[in-house]
Amino acid sequence: MKIFDQIAMCLQNLSRRKVRTALTTMGVVIGTCAIVVMISLGVGLQKSQEAMLAQMGDLTKIEIYNYSGGAGGTSSVPNLDDSMIEQIAAYDHVDVITPVVQAEWGKINIQCGDYIYQDSIYGVYPEALEKLGYVLKEGKYPTGKEKDYTILFGENGPYSFYNPKNPEEWHDPSSGDPPVDIFSDDFTISVNAQDPEGNAKEPEKYDATVTGVLVGDWNKGYETVYGAFLSIDQLYKLYQEYDEFNGISSTSSSAFNPRKINYNRVYVKVTDMKYVDEVETKIKDLGYDTYSMETVRKPMQEQANKMMLILGSLGGISLLVAAMGITNTMIMSIYERTREIGIMKVLGCVIGDIRTVFLMEAGLIGFGGGVIGVILSFAISIVLNVLGGGGLGGLMGGYYYGGGGDAATQISVIPIWLVGLALVFSTLIGLVSGFSPANRAVKISALEAIKHE
Amino acid sequence: MEKTPFIEIRGLKKVYKLGKERVVALDDINLTIQRGEICCILGTSGSGKSTLLNMMAGLERPTKGKVLYSNKDVTRFDERRWALFRQKNIGFVFQSYNLMTGLSGVENVAMPLMFRGMDKDKRTRIAKEVLREVGLGNRMKHKPTQMSGGQQQRVGIARAFVTNPKIVFADEPTGNLDSKTTTEVMELMVNKSRENNQTFILVTHDNGIARYADRIVTIVDGKIVRDEKNESIARTREQIASDNAQEVRQQAAAEEETEVSAPIPADEAAANMSTEGAE
Ligand SMILES: Nc1ncnc2c1ncn2[C@@H]1O[C@H](COP(=O)(O)OP(=O)(O)OP(=O)(O)O)[C@@H](O)[C@H]1O
Ligand SMILES: [Mg+2]
Fold it and tell me: pLDDT tens across A197-247, in order?
């Protein structure tokens, strides 16, 4: 038999008993709806939690803190140095890594005319900035390959310049312009004299280029608001010069040799949220302290998953009832059609074709019910979102962090995978329910069937 | 030159076990049927006619013995091979018509072609043609429930012949019809079989109907008791018709003592019986 004829026969059989087909399909529709809506609530909850967490910080960022860092720690923890950074960078799913070294206050000055910046200077790998999620407000990111000193400011960095001759002069970031214009003014960078009185000569001033400013984000850190970024190599060059200029011997310098340094802080960015746990565990196993949103996210997600499982099982039960309905319908249909099956067999229809037609009927009830169920679920989802905006998710959010804000507006979310899952599942339920009746149909003795009234 | 028998039945036996009771429905049946033969299996109710027919068509398995088509042993065919064999080679006419109630006349007739995988346009065209040949050109779209018994049986006949099978089996095809319709239906089947040199095997308890056959095999209690060439076949069809109407009681007198089968020679002795799948 051609597949087309099998389909035609299947449709014909289903349409011959319209009411029964409709009722059976309805069972699947309700089951599918139950599953989809229930899971959509779970997904909505998860989504609102994620949005909430994202507001609190970067979900894919791991911060490594090495408290034994500094001058040659004595603990068993290995030094967090450049070779260790290379090792961590080679882990699977690590997107980018950078040490973060905050320059000791007062060692380095950025100067522009009469104004001096001494706020917070950070040494990082400049090429990591963009991937770490620091957002540029103006200008461009430094590439790390510049010969000259290259600076990227936090959003309000330019407001932190002050005039030593007039310390009272104050530039408010929320109103008015900063004292310096990063794009048109000339900047220089220099080390500071430890004892300005005792030193005969002035430290040398190097030309510096400012490439841009970042969007300030307190969730990402102080550095994005008032900081200034330098490449870590340039920072070390300045450190060396500082030691030389102030006559500090290399042995007592903590920062002299970049290859031997033990970093205090390193940021790691993984490619996806789901790898945070894996990478973080590996780093922890090395003996370092870490911090990521994972510690907050995980229990929340576990709870959301548990919730989704409970809700999904509730839906699953109704689909199970629907499955029994399909089996029942198919068995009824076989009794009614015993004679026809017998005739078909006598006339040379191979049993494979008969089985296929029956499976198609059951599968079609499942699939059709699934399609209608999914459509209906979308309607229900919309209604839920309109009526109960901020409902379940908001509730949970409120429970955790005093309100998830605008993140928790969608109580029910139906992602595309749920649609696929529902359709596959409902069709499968149909096929499985139809399997035993179909086998029963092919086992019918042709002879007995044609005697059957 | 020895002719290859078209259908050969050797030592066929069928025993039904009902609890402790054993019913011997067929006992050591030996029968050879040639291509193009119109053969009637005649016997009283319960004599085992249907059982024999069903075993020849693979609807039942013999307890013992063999069925061969063109020397090919089909006795041990599995269900699928039997289905394909029937699809290719066998047409069926039933006493109770056995039409699909949900399908129209044309769809019923086209069904065996559909099982073969023929596309819809082609099979509908062929089915319509055959329906016209059986005189139902004006009832094509009717459902079986909208037809008389005679019309339904014509649909059944059209369905049996639509695939142009090598063999057509008919089990009491006129059992539910009146005498006039019986004559029409019998003539239709016999003529169609002759036209295409098809082997037609007719099962009946009615001597009058047996007259349409070239050969009459009589079964009593599962055994062949007589196998004779039909004398009356020499006569014209009109005479047969009138025989059926008026001379039913004279059947006994017409019996003759021919023991050996005298089949009508088939033009091609060993027809290639295909057991392959549908095209
Ligand atoms: N499925 C079965 N189980 C048990 N016995 C059976 C079965 N089918 C047939 N028989 C027996 O086998 C014998 C032959 O039956 P069969 O149907 O072949 O008779 P028949 O000649 O076709 O009769 P009729 O003219 O009434 O149709 C009968 O005695 C019947 O009771
Ligand atoms: Mg019978």
Answer: 666 677 888 888 888 988 888 877 888 888 999 888 888 888 888 888 887
pLDDT at site A128: 87
Cβ(A204)–Cβ(A108) below 8 Å = no
pLDDT at residue B50 greater than cutoff 90? yes
Helix (H), strand (E) at residue A206: strand A206-214
Decide if domain B36-54+87-234 falls under CATH 3.30.410.40: no
A288 & A303 share domain: no
| Cα gap A448→A302, rounded to integer Å | 58
How many cross-chain Cβ pairs, A to B, lie less than 8 Å apart?
A: 65
What is the rounded CA–CA span in Å between residue A266 and residue B256? 114
Confidence at residue B232, expressed as pLDDT on a 0 to 100 scale? 66
> What's this model's pTM, rounded to 2 decimal places?
0.68
Contact: B86, A348; criterion CB under 8 Å: yes
Residues within a 6 A CB radius of ligand 1: B 16, 18, 23, 25, 43, 45-51, 205
In this complex, do B98 and A350 lie within 8 Å of one another by their Cβ atoms?
A: no
Tokens 């003529």: give the residue. B191
pLDDT at A200: 65
Nearest residue (by CA) to ligand 1, atom 16, is B48
CA of B49 to the centre of ligand 1 (A): 8
Check if B92 contacts A (Cβ < 8 Å): yes
Q: Which amino acid is at A89?
A: A
Task: Please give the Cα distance from B163 to B260 (Å, whole number).
Answer: 33
Range of the domain at A156: 61-293
CB atoms within 10 A of CB A101: 22
Q: Predicted ipTM?
A: 0.83
Check whether residue A250 and residue A193 sit in a common domain: yes
Residue B219: count other Cβ atoms within 10 Å of its Cβ. Answer: 24
Collapsed DSSP state (helix, strand, coil) of residue A150: strand
Token digits of residue A263: 């970093």
- Which residues of chain B make contact with A13, given a CB cutoff of 8 A? 102
Q: Check whether residue A229 and residue A342 sit in a common domain.
A: no
Nearest-CA distance B83 → chain A (Å): 4
Q: How many whole angstroms separate alpha carbon A10 and alpha carbon A31?
A: 23
Indicate the residue among A293, A316, A346 that finishes a domain. A293
Domain ranges of chain B: 36-54+87-234
The contacts of residue A194 (CB under 8 Å, 6+ apart) are A246
Rounded Cα–Cα distance for residues A77 and B90 (Å):
87
Q: How far apart are the first and last CA of chain A?
A: 26
Rounded distance from Cα A39 to ligand 1 centre (Å): 60
